[in-house]
Design brief:
- By secondary structure, this protein is an alpha/beta fold.
- 30% of the residues lie in helices and 26% in strands.
- The protein has 10 helices and 16 strands.
- Strands 3, 5, 6, 7, 8, 15 and 16 form a 7-stranded mixed sheet that branches.
- Strand 10, helix 6 and strand 11 form a beta-alpha-beta unit.
- The radius of gyration is 20 Å and the shape is globular.
Length: 313
């Protein structure tokens, strides 16, 4: 029997997330079964549980989780992974998964990507959702080597990758972070600045020239207000969080447009290769047993250590 986490009602994780047993899945045409070794946790999981992504009760009990890493255990007819032929025993990453909070995951083969041996399952499981989001930010802003880029939230899971991708393009990067994460942001290749009162002046001092693009991962009014004062064209301010500020002319991404989907799909192979080669740094903050997911989700929704939370079946 498989074990999986489901949402039984919309509310707080400790109250509505349950571990249940279900028959082991059988792959149909174009599908594979993966024994999960690690499962990436994301803030979107908490939003799903709370009904912030829609509260249709007809969908209950609702599976959780968008990404995992594991080993292929069964393959349906005509199944080919996103990265080529696939065999039982292959180490893989599954993204975008449906119901990844399980020890046995049924997935469309097109969502399966081979995992290099140099990329461990824990880091692989938390790589792609934040990675493709960061890549979409950089691609949408059309970051060039000549750009001076401001990243809001440079120490966060998405922001830290956005910093590294912008640096790899050759851009000059300034990134906001809390006082405790200034050295971390500097190690990623950006000039760190502390957010809070006086941010505008600190960014202007840190930047080598006028800021030409902004990648926002925090969505605060402070971040957007400062950005609008720094950048002449609000269309060069791209956010994945400031959904209430679209009327200011900034670009807000949620991954739903055809171009955004193309940006994200095109980034996957490079993200995996760069992480496996050590060119892209990611962090695992904490790991939890699968059964402790409600506790982990509650902690994920509050202030927590830098890096990704990962479930271990």
């Amino acid at each position: 029997m498989a074990h999986k986490l489901v949402v039984t009602a919309y509310g707080e994780p400790a109250d509505v997330v349950r571990l249940i047993e279900a028959p082991d899945p059988t792959p149909g045409p174009g599908q594979v079964v993966v024994a999960t070794r690690a499962i990436g946790m994301n803030p979107a999981d908490v939003k799903t549980i709370r009904g912030q992504m829609g509260a249709d009760e007809s969908r209950l009990p609702l599976p959780l989780g968008f990404e995992a890493a594991g080993v292929v255990t069964a393959i349906g007819e005509h199944a080919h992974s996103a990265s080529g032929p696939i065999s039982v025993g292959d180490d893989v990453i599954v993204y975008r998964a449906v119901g990844a909070y399980t020890d046995v995951l049924l997935a469309d083969a097109t969502a399966v990507h081979h995992r290099p041996s140099t990329l461990d399952a824990e880091h692989a499981a938390g790589l792609l959702l934040v990675g493709v989001t960061a890549a979409d930010l950089v691609a949408t802003a059309a970051v060039q080597p000549s750009d001076v880029v401001l990243v809001h939230g440079g120490s966060g899971a998405v922001g830290s990758i956005a910093v590294q991708l912008a640096v790899s393009v050759g851009a000059t990067v300034v990134a906001t972070a809390g006082a405790a994460n200034q050295d971390h942001v500097a190690a990623l290749g950006a000039t760190p600045v502390v957010y809070g009162e006086g941010l505008l002046d600190r960014v202007r001092t840190a930047a080598t020239g006028p800021v030409t693009a902004v990648l926002d991962t925090v969505g605060t009014d402070e971040a957007i207000d400062v950005s609008l004062q720094l950048v002449d064209n609000p269309g060069k301010i791209v956010s994945v969080a400031a959904f209430g500020r679209a009327a200011d002319g900034i670009v807000v991404l949620n991954g739903s447009t055809p171009q955004s989907k193309q940006n994200r799909a095109a980034a996957i192979d490079d993200l995996i290769a760069d992480a496996a080669a050590g060119r892209l740094a990611t962090e695992v903050a904490k790991t939890f047993p699968l059964a402790d997911a409600p506790t982990a989700l509650t902690e994920l929704a509050t202030t927590h250590p830098r890096g990704k939370f990962v479930l271990l079946p």
